[in-house]
Amino acid sequence: MTNAPLVLTYLDAYQKERQISYDNLDHCLLAFSGCVTLPDSYQVVSVTYKGQILPFTGRIGDFYRYLIQFDQSLRNSN
C-alpha cells in the first residue's frame, strides 16, 4: 500500500488487481482529463482519498466525472 493521498485500485484486462496513486487530487484530475491514463472499460475496485474509501463504484470511464464532482464538493467545504 502506498502513502499517496489518492489511490485507485482497479481490475486490468486480465482481471488482476492493480493500483495507481497520485500525489494530490489535481494530478489525478489532470491524468484522467486526457483520457489516456487507463482504458475506460476497466472496473474500479476502490478509491481511497487521504485514508478514506470513497463511495465510487463503476468503470474508469465514469471516474473522471466523479472526480470533478468530488473536487467541487471539497472546494465548497473549505
Index terms:
single chain, about 80 residues, alpha+beta, Dna Ligase, domain 1, five-stranded antiparallel sheet, 5 strands, globular, 30S ribosomal protein S16, ribosomal protein, DUF4649, ribonucleoprotein
* Strand fraction: 25-35%
- What portion of residues is helical? 25-40%
Oligomer: single chain
CATH first level: Alpha Beta
The SSE string, one letter per element, is EEHEEEH
Pfam family, one: DUF4649
Keywords: Ribonucleoprotein, Ribosomal protein
InterPro entries: DUF4649
Organism: Streptococcus viridans
Description:
This is 30S ribosomal protein S16. Keywords: Ribonucleoprotein, Ribosomal protein. With 78 residues, the chain is α+β, with helices and mostly antiparallel strands. It has a single domain (6-77), classed as Protein of unknown function DUF4649 (Dna Ligase, domain 1). Helices cover 35% and strands 29% of the residues. It contains two helices and five strands, in the order ββαβββα. It has helices at 25-33, 60-77; strands at 6-11, 17-22, 43-49, 52-53, 58-59. Strands 1, 2, 3, 4 and 5 form a five-stranded antiparallel sheet that branches. Strand 3 (43-49) and strand 4 (52-53) form a beta hairpin. 14% of the residues are buried. The mean pLDDT is 86.
